[in-house]
Amino acid sequence: MPESESGIGDKEPRSLRQRPSRAVKVGTCTIGSSAPIAVQSMCATKTANIEATLAQIHLLECAGAHIIRIAVDNQRDVEALQQIRKETAANLVIDLQENFQLARAVAPLVQKLRYNPGHLHHSRHGMSIVDKVKFLVDIAGANSCALRIGVNFGSLDPARKAQGKSREHSAVESALEHCELVERCGFSSYVVSLKSSNPLAVVEINRRFAALRPEVPLHLGVTEAGLPPEGIEKTRSALVPLLAEGIGDTLRVSLTLPDAEKDREVRAAYEIIEDAHTGRVSSAAPSRAPALNVISCPSCSRVENQAFVSLAQHVKEALSDLADKPLTVAVMGCRVNGPGETDEADIGLWCAPGFVNLKRGHELIGRFSYAEVIARMREEAEDVLRKKQAAPEQ
To answer: What DSSP state is assigned to residue 312?
Structure first.
């Protein structure tokens, strides 16, 4: 790859000390075993906008992405994907989310399918989870596709959440359960991701899983890491220690960025891998100190309003004087992880096409325009901090 295009030159990530994970083929890329760590990213463009999506695929490829994820939510997206596949040889992974039944239509066109155990509950309620997983495995196997079992704190299996266990425990349990379901079908070409917006949690859950299932390749990432540079630092603080321990076979840096800057995710990923190679670990340890934490999801094709990226930036600016305060604010672009992540934050902004849902924890404060929500968010943030300051120490 020309250095003028990628800034990386011809250098591939060297293999770090690896767990004895098995190799999983994703088109021309191998994840796991002794293969170099694979770098991934996701198109932020609307999939149905074929020209823009192809341009973004090219942008990410030039930056060094080995695998590129695209969202497919409906038949229009499927038809667009058919044309996209004719125009690119990139290794593509399809993010099915709530629409697992689209797997049959898209599997012949891609190298990998990603499903979220928590979202299998959202459709075909009369079909068991076991049968849904078998449906996906059968299609993946028939089309030589790999699978990713993607577990996120923002969208955990509702049955597990109802048990009252910690999100860390529930996430690892969910991943282990789905490994067993997939393997029961005689399928082994899969990887697992365990993600949270909390770097400390990312380290904990991946260490737990790696100790229990060392042979399963792991996809690392801090989901909803937010805006750069803070989002890059959050991701670095979680991934460098894991990579240095030999945990992690592929990764993505998930940043809130304008469409034209999505290649920054890939460049940041290479920098993080290099940090792990050179031993820059201790300075990147996740912090437990109370401080402002702005969580925002990566810009992707599911964002309800393109104003989301600027909204996240305005939230960050409006709270800049509270940088040392124990406040968590989540800015979410769509409904995929919006409810789960905003429920866990002090203040949550969950975007719809024409308005923003403003929340305090689980409570909906109201729906505000994109122009007026910042001022009201600031008022609620100040009130949260006053109440925290007045509360007796535990």
So the answer is: H
Distance, in Å, from the CA atom of 302 to the CA atom of 284, rounded to the nearest integer, reads 31
| CA-based R_g, the chain, Å | 20
Smallest CA-to-CA distance from 152 within 122, 216, 197, 207 is with 197
pLDDT per position as a tens digit, 239-254: 999 999 999 999 999 9
- DSSP code, position 250: E
Amino acid (one-letter) located at 185? C
At the second CATH level, the architecture of 293-390 is 2-Layer Sandwich (3.30)
- Alpha carbon of residue 45 to chain centroid: 16
pLDDT at 281: 58
Q: What's the token pair of residue 364?
A: 């909906």
Quote the crossing angle between the two packed helices 50-63 and 263-278, to the nearest 10°. 20
Q: What is the pTM of this model?
A: 0.90
Give the whole-angstrom CA distance, residue 181 versus residue 203: 25
One-letter amino acid for residue 137 of the chain: V
Tell me what pLDDT residue 39 has.
Answer: 98
What angle (nearest 5°) sits at the alpha carbon of residue 261, between those of residues 256 and 264? Answer: 80
CA 211 – CA 215 distance, rounded (Å): 10
DSSP state of 217: -
pLDDT tens profile 43-83: 999 999 999 999 999 999 999 999 999 999 899 999 999 99
The domain made up of 19-218 has a fold known as: TIM Barrel (3.20.20)
Torsion of CA 288, 289, 293, 298, to 10 degrees: -30
Cβ distance 74 to 98 under 8 Å?
Answer: no
Question: What is the C-alpha separation between 56 and 53, in angstroms, rounded?
Answer: 5
Could you give the residue range(s) of every CATH 3.20.20.20 domain in the chain? 19-218
Neighbours of 358 (CB within 10 A): 21
Are 23 and 35 in contact by the 8 Å Cβ rule? The answer is: yes
Residue 199 scores a pLDDT above 60: yes
